[in-house]
Amino acid sequence: MTTATPDTIAELQSRLSDLELSKTHNDVSAIIQKERTEMLLSLRKIMETMKAEAAGGGGASSKELEELRAENEELKKRNAKQNYRIEHLVNNLRGVVDK
Q1: How far apart are CA 45 and CA 37, in angstroms?
Q2: What's the whole-model pTM score?
Q3: pLDDT tens over the chain, length 99 residues
Q4: What secondary structure does DSSP assign to 38-97, as a single string?
Q5: N or C: which end of the chain has fewer CB within 10 A?
Q6: Spacing of C-alpha 84 from chain mean position
Q7: Burial degree of 37 (CB within 10 A; 0-12, 13-18, 19+)
């Protein structure tokens, strides 16, 4: 049988330590790779959603915006007419009450 010398034992411990470190490194690398893959998939989904929204999937179209603007103008005109009528009625009532 061969006898183990202190140098041989130290060398074996060093190799064992290197192997353990390599295994730990491989485990960490696998975890990091998995996280990167998940993040990449998430970013792709976000990018697809943004492209869909930019292509008209979200928000109002220009036709809808024009219709809303026209409706808004009509409502402004109605409001102005009703304000005029209210002021006219209030003035008449004040004239009647003052007499």
Answers
A1: 13
A2: 0.39
A3: 566 687 888 888 888 888 887 777 778 788 888 999 999 999 999 999 888 877 765 566 788 889 999 999 999 999 999 999 999 999 999 988 887
A4: HHHHHHHHHHHHHHHIIIIISS--HHHHHHHHHHHHHHHHHHHHHHHHHHHHHHHHHHHH
A5: N
A6: 47
A7: exposed
